[in-house]
Amino acid sequence: MTDFHRLSIREMAEGLASSQFSSRELTQHYLNRIARIDPQVKSYVTVTPEQALSEADAADAARKAGQATQLTGIPLAHKDIFCTQGIRTSAGSKMLDNFISPYDATVVSKAKQAGLVTLGKVNMDEFAMGSTSESSYYGATRNPWNLEHVPGGSSGGSAAVVAADLAPFATGTDTGGSIRQPASFCGLTGLKPTYGRVSRFGIVAFASSLDQAGPMARSAEDCAFLMNTMAGHDAKDSTSMDKAVDDYVADLDATSIKGLRIGIPKQYFNVAGLDAQVKARVEESLKQLEQLGATLVEIDLNMVESYVPTYYLIAPAEASSNLSRYDGVRYGYRCENPTNLLDLYNRSRSEGFGAEVQRRILIGTYALSAGYYDAYYVKAQKVRRLIQQDFLNAFAQVDVIAAPSAPTTAYKIGASLDPVEMYLGDIYTIAVNLAGLPAINAPVGFDQNKLPVGLQLIGNYWSESQLLSIVHQYQQHTDWHTQRAAIAEENA
Ligand code: GLN
């Protein structure tokens, strides 16, 4: 068999369970593809072939011994923000270029317990700050649909590996859209869970009250398999919720589109900068959902103009505090020949952090400083509460809310957007993080340049199962999620 990469996760699980192929064969197939195709896509920061093959052999042995889970032996890639014991965790930064974690993130250890095989660590914007993956110290990752375009960010590597079939699925994190926007740019399904559903333990922190990890894959069904291994309470993360986890795979048929009330926030479709093609594809997908039995309900989300200013105070404020730990002393990059302690701090941070990260630290430190704290940080927290209330009011009327995931399709590499232009591109995703809600991206077509467009569905708290199920139902009637970029069609 030469085209393992065309199989769904369910088909891989069935093939392994019935001994049609081994984990070693499957893993070797992906390693071959990575060796041949990744030099064009540049999605992996670190590939771990030896470890992957030894994990694959262990998976095959476990299966023979009758100790396999459904996913045992299936490969995956981790965003390079998840700590992996013994393998470098760079967070896309020169600061952590030499950092090898002494422990695994909970998401990583849960994946290992399920028997998943790690192919390697994939590229991302530095410390997950960005929307293109270009701020990575390791250079830009390419969009498999068009190598001159970005895959989105910050989980751009996670999106690119799946879209190029260099991994069957991948983990990502989403602080302000970093799962949904790259999924949208690369034609994938990506779920940002409710804050507290997935443990943040061992994830390099960006903005702790917003960060949440989730799955990225071709289909809702594939995401559901990975979500089953990721979700759950973790005593090591005090913000993770001690609440029973759904069986996301079993629930894929649990929600019917028939009778579903989908809220259409009218303010969202009047945003300046919403690309006409994106708008058209999203509206077509909503028509399809209507034909499948959903009711579209026009709703108001009045706070849309506050989203970008609020997020771009709170996220940098938390980042400036989280990133104060990188001082050149404990771990990470240290400058050469410091003359004194202040020089050591100063130069290690100036040389170790890239421009976007430095910008955020400066904005955040300013917003938190005495004299400005009330005017900026405290005010942003109050507005955050109003944004949440706005969503809760909407959920009194509708089951889910529909929006584009991003106002445009993938930018050209090097488009050198100014920072504010780039921040405005986050308009549809960041409010979801401010409110702590779950949301999913589903591919719904292409623009005139054959770049993917995504629909975002935002759910009420703990509705991951419902979101996956709705997208799964939609994907039973459409084939956007099965379309592949030309580079993914190539055999290794
Ligand atoms: N693009 C947003 C930012 O730059 C979101 C990033 C993320 O979700 N990690 O902050």
TrEMBL record:
Record-linked PROSITE patterns: AMIDASES
Gene3D superfamilies associated with the record: Amidase signature (AS) domain
Q: What class of enzyme is it?
A: ligase
Q: GO annotations under biological process?
A: translation
> Per UniProt, which keywords does this protein have?
ATP-binding, Ligase, Nucleotide-binding, Protein biosynthesis, Transferase
Catalytic activity, reaction form = L-glutamyl-tRNA(Gln) + L-glutamine + ATP + H2O = L-glutaminyl-tRNA(Gln) + L-glutamate + ADP + phosphate + H(+)
The Swiss-Prot or TrEMBL record annotates one GO molecular function as: glutaminyl-tRNA synthase (glutamine-hydrolyzing) activity
Q: Does the keyword Ligase apply?
A: yes
- GO terms for CC? glutamyl-tRNA(Gln) amidotransferase complex
* Amidase domain boundaries: 25-468
Function comment: Allows the formation of correctly charged Gln-tRNA(Gln) through the transamidation of misacylated Glu-tRNA(Gln) in organisms which lack glutaminyl-tRNA synthetase. The reaction takes place in the presence of glutamine and ATP through an activated gamma-phospho-Glu-tRNA(Gln).
Looking up HAMAP family in the UniProt record yields:
GatA
Family membership noted in the UniProt record: Belongs to the amidase family. GatA subfamily.
Name-wise, this protein is Glutamyl-tRNA(Gln) amidotransferase subunit A
Provide the species name. Answer: Acinetobacter rudis CIP 110305
| Biological classification of the source | Bacteria, Pseudomonadati, Pseudomonadota, Gammaproteobacteria, Moraxellales
Originating gene: gatA
